[in-house]
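Example record used in the benchmark description.
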Amino acid sequence: MLLLLLAGVAAGALNAVGGGGSFVALTALVTAGVPPVTANATTTVALLPGNATSAWVYRHDIEGFRHPSPTRLTLASITGGGLGAGLLLLLPSASFNAAVPWLLAFATIILAFGKRLSRLLRFGRLGPEAILTGQFLLAIYGGYFGGAVGLMMLAFWTATTTLDPARGNPLRVIQVAAVYLTAAVVFVFAADVLDQPLHLVALLGGAIIGGYGGAHLVRRLPSKVLRGLVLGTAIGMTVVFFFRDFG
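Model output (structure tokens):
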């Protein structure tokens, strides 16, 4: 329980600063013996309060783009997040177990090369509807799995709009919170995340602490150290799941 609490603190703080906290939380739950699908759903529910707390802190610092408006972008995130969560529960668990190593590998690549990819894949400015469609698809991914979805959003916005990625973190935090909101509602009522309440409470409590106060401590660490920790966790988790499913 103490390890899950500490994992929640780390996950909440990392999500507040730059993303990648879901890798820490998912790793901790799977290590504790929680099945992968349940661990993924529990991660979403547990990290929601931390993301919401960070979103509240950032509410006055939102810098987005005029078209589409932040409201329409948030609606796309909410709708897509709920649909992705529904897909996780409707599809056979074997499908998730088979897909998660590849999803982890894809998310790890985004973590490692997201900034470079966003610079290389400059599509030019897209119209509002195209941006909303892209956001909706990213939200589906976020509701279904969620690994590195915030970084993927930043990369997408950087490649298709004039938003400065250095100033896009508040918008990223709010959109990830919107995705997690509807996904968490679906998981609480339709999944078995409440079957192990101690795991959920420990991770959730840590995420709130990390999302609000832990971010201030994390900001004092060198960015290379943070990036290395998240990348190391992502790579390790990817290897574990490939071995688990295909070894």
